[in-house]
Amino acid sequence: MGRTVIPIGPFHPLQEEPEFFTLTVEGETVVDIDVRIGYNHRGIEKLSESKNFDNSTFVVERICGICSTSHPFAYVRAVEDIFPVEAPPRAKYIRTIIAEGERIHSHLLWLGLAGHFLGYNTVYMWAWKLREEILDVMEILSGNRNNYAMFRPGGVRRDIKAGDIPAVLAKIDSIVPTLEMIKKAVLDDPVLHARLEGIGILSRQQAIDYSALGPTSRASGVARDVRKDSPYGAYGELEWDMIVTSNGDVFDKAVIRILETFQSIRIMKYCLEHLPEGEIDLNLGEIPPGEGIGHIEAPRGETFHYVKSDGTNRVIRHKVRAPTFMNLPTYKSTVVGYTISDATIILAAIDPCYCCTERIAVRDTHDRKIFDGNDLIRLSREKTERIRRKLGYR
Amino acid sequence: MTREEVIADLQSRFGDDIVELVDKSHNRVYMEINPRAITWVGTYIFRDLHARFNIASATDMPHHMEILYHFTIEDIDLMVNVRVKLPKDAPKIHSLASAIWALDWIEREMHELLGIEFIGHPDPRRLLLPDSWPEGVYPLRQDYREWDKTAVRDRGV
Amino acid sequence: MSMTLKALLKSPWVFHLSTGSCNNCDIEVLDCLTPRFDVERFGILLAGSIRHSDVLLVTGSCNRMSVERLKKLYDQVPKPCLVVGIGTCAGSRGVFIDSYNCPVPLDHIIPVDVYIPGCPPKPEAIIAGVVKLIQKVGNG
Q: What is the ipTM of this complex?
């Protein structure tokens, strides 16, 4: 049987960012995948070198829109690690609140996109509508729906007013019933179980070999989460559960993200209700020479920043590593061996944020393009339909 | 193992190849080694100490090229950062990518952005830069200069 | 502009493409299609393919690799087609103006009809921008 090569991307309407995947297919089975990134490479590490420590915070916020807070958080922790020094308690709690708010909106976004790829457009609309409530919360707390600009080395830039907290808590509480409904709808749906279980499996050893991060590794039984392993912010001071499963398939990754959303709500509410008094900034002044590392748990996994300073208040070297950089190579193990109908959802399962990392083609051996990204989504939805009919749903 | 045991173990095992070990803080250790030892030190920390590989940062320093391999031993919250210093005129080091899958992409990135050669890398293609980017021009080097005559860098006002 | 364009803009089909963006603007564009903002009630639909689109929504700071694709895609769009540059990056590259991988701004590559500044612009701003475009075309 001849091999066919399928390109997905780089511009395709539902995948927000340009990316280039090439799938090699024998019949219906994927036998190889190649990923070409670079469509979002904007040279941020070099840009940082021409800015001073405060300004770099704003550049890194624009590395990625969805996990926009994770980068400044890791960066300011890296700068503080040069001394090393810890931000004041109130700042730590505020940082945690913002980071968890982002986690909620990011997971809801993913849920919506996954629903869209599978043909559950209602889930897409519900999840994104719910997301708007969280964005309202972030707007009350920070002034903007995205790009909160709350971080600075040594603390946070803005305080949370006590008068805002009741409204914020009420809004957070208001999304819980719908979230419960979505959780039940996903966990109890036999069609989704049949559709997503056993698909795109990343084994435990593979997750370790790739140094996979975030829900991608926790779904494979590798219990790694920077918030537990190396507590920062308020995480060491409050009760919350790390969600770990062991099958490593797409269903597990979906379950983890849904359950993590509930944990994030728990953490956010605790921090808002127990916000300590005090200053919000250390007023660091000159950054001494040295090097520092900051790593935090973004919605997709560990975000890692390394900063080197020579005492002149400019960054000599700023290394940025987003979690998707470590998760994208896992495709070699999770897509290969499965069918093209499953390709879209397996690719979406690691929640790829290509802009952090810096888009799918299927071609036949005569190099004719036979499928594009749209076709693959259509194939994915058709498979969901087949499963529905087989299970007796109309 | 506790962090002191880990440090003692690394020192006794690789003593000859360790140039300097800096115990910076309770969760950061910086260890400079001889570049020829990267393969056995790297694989020991990854496999035997069950560390997770975070990433590698390469820097163009004034008199040498430096790579820092960052590993985290999660159980004791210790980050072991392995530093190697390479000569600027010929920055070469053995690739760890065949032994540790996690290093594949970052070595490709360090090669195309800084010009470091990873001997034995299984797939040394470009990762981030477009095909139209000229060979031998490494953007993260300090001596990088704008080569593109068509670039527009002012705001037009 | 032509009668065709005026007619098409009664229910514009938009195609969204990113030339190397942080994705914030892209999410805000998709937000416009979700229940809170819901531009579908104005007849604005997301086109499945660029060949069916009337309005191109472009985001991103024109990264080298994306620009090669952008030029090819722009040639495929049936003219007349309007281009909306969404976000500060599409206007002038914003904070990425000195980036080695973002050499020229969008309007040096394809003609842009409307700029919607913001980082990211809120969905209200995006809708207002598209409406301004439709009015501008309607007024000839």
A: 0.95
